Amino acid sequence: MVKKVRKPVVAGYFYERDRDKLVQQIKWSIEHDLGPKEVVKKPREGYNAVPIGISPHAGYVYSGPIAAHIFAEIYRFHEPKTFIIAGPNHHGFGPPVAIVDEGVWETPLGSVEIDSDIARELRKKCNVVEIDYFAHEREHSIEVQLPFIQYFFKDFKIVPITLLIQDLSIAKCLGKAIAEIIRERNLGEVIYIASTDWNHYEPHEVTVEKDMKAIEKVLNLDVDGFYDIIRRLDISVCGYGAVGTAIVAAREINVKDVKLLKHATSGDTSGYFLETVGYAAIAFYV
Hints:
Blueprint: E1 5-6, H1 19-31, E2 52-55, H2 60-77, E3 82-88, E4 97-99, E5 104-107, E6 110-114, H3 116-125, E7 129-131, H4 146-152, E8 157-163, H5 168-183, E9 190-195, E10 200-202, H6 204-219, H7 223-232, H8 240-252, E11 257-265, H9 266-270, E12 276-285
Parallel strand pairs: 1-5, 2-9, 3-8, 3-9, 4-7, 6-8
Antiparallel strand pairs: 2-12, 4-8, 5-6, 10-12, 11-12
Helix pairs in contact: 1-2, 3-5, 5-8, 6-7
């Protein structure tokens, strides 16, 4: 049977299309003043695993150094077998929650297989999840995570999830299902990545202030407070449903600490501070 193949849609736009140039771009992200600077295989003292992370999904020239933090942090601890990656559905195509349950996704760094078993298991555990390939065809929020994962890890599979509807009830359903999958396997075998950018198109100081108020709720694992504050303060977090899912899953698996590894805005990387987008790398530890 011929496998379904998803070709990259933002290669040459959000990140380099050429393999060697892409590797250099990821190295640049790591070594950037805002990046982690180093990659080490050494867990942080006092922690056993990083089963959940939050990563940005903008063009690498803007958010790459921040994204590098979360994958370097996961690399300290694990060689994961599967990454479940949820992000917003920017284009509005497809069902409220769309998953892919077979095939491969390609990037300039190679092909990644879908973990069909976990995808189907997730669908059974959370009845709002639907199989839909069309929702993923043009969406970048998951695709841009893959080259970073490919750079740091080998022999892994993915489960991509787009969220058209991002309300709290969906975050709770999906978060509990993901937590069950994480608990049912060896620690570090399955990692959940929430793909989101934070406040959009306001001055740097405004974006920083708004972002930190929302991120504080994440660090305190306060999912109700997170949804409340982004609504009340009009904080335009594009992947808030993926973040809400992370908080719910974290509480279910008894995460003991959450750390903001790095926050910056597009102003920090581009030098243009009038209209900025916020980016954050956040790690959840057990």
